[in-house]
Specification:
- Helices cover 74% and strands 0% of the residues.
- By secondary structure, the chain is an all-alpha fold.
- It has a single domain, classed as Ribosomal protein L20, C-terminal domain (c-terminal domain of poly(a) binding protein, Orthogonal Bundle), CATH 1.10.1900.
- Helix 4 packs across helix 5.
- The protein is rod-shaped and about 80 Å long.
């Protein structure tokens, strides 16, 4: 079996890991083993939170639509509006409705009057 010297490769991976953890506190920014663990945990959290962000935005859209509906008519709710929107065959998703309610309230009012 031939001898394999890994000094160059080990140094390269160590340098790569430590460059990724710049700004971390305590041993995580200086020690290779804790730095590697910090990177792996950060990666799993980043993956999960990219998924969570989509749900957070959907919640925000729902709240904005409901708030705009309550300004128009206090008794009219978000759930009734979405149901009536589907019955009226108006194919606008929550993201667009939210942006209309937030940026163009007059257009949103017209849509609500058409649905009611």
């Amino acid at each position: 079996m031939t001898r394999v010297k890994k000094g160059v490769n080990a140094l390269k991976t160590r340098r790569n890991i430590l460059s990724q953890v710049k700004g971390y506190r305590f041993n995580r920014s200086t020690k290779e083993r804790t730095a590697y663990e910090a990177i792996s945990h950060a990666g799993t959290y980043a993956f999960a939170h990219r998924r969570d962000k989509k749900g957070d935005y959907r919640k925000l859209w729902n709240v904005r639509i409901n708030a705009a509906l309550r300004n128009i008519n206090e008794k009219y709710s978000y759930s009734k509006f979405i149901g009536n929107l589907k019955k009226a065959n108006i194919a606008l998703d929550r993201k667009i409705l939210s942006s209309l309610a937030h940026e163009n309230p007059t257009v949103f009012d017209a849509i609500v009057k058409k649905v009611i």
